[in-house]
Amino acid sequence: SDDYKNDNYASLTVDLGENYFMDKFVAYVASAYNKSVGIEAPSKVSVFVSEDNENWTEAGSVTPEDVTNVSCIAATVELDKSVYGRYIQFRFESNVSWIFLSEVCAYEGEAYELPVEPEYILGDVDNNKTVDSVDYLLVKRACFKTYTLSQEEELRANVNRDNTIDSTDYLLVKRIAFGTYTAE
Question: 114 to each of 11, 101, 111, how far by Cα in Å?
Answer without folding.
Answer: 28, 33, 9
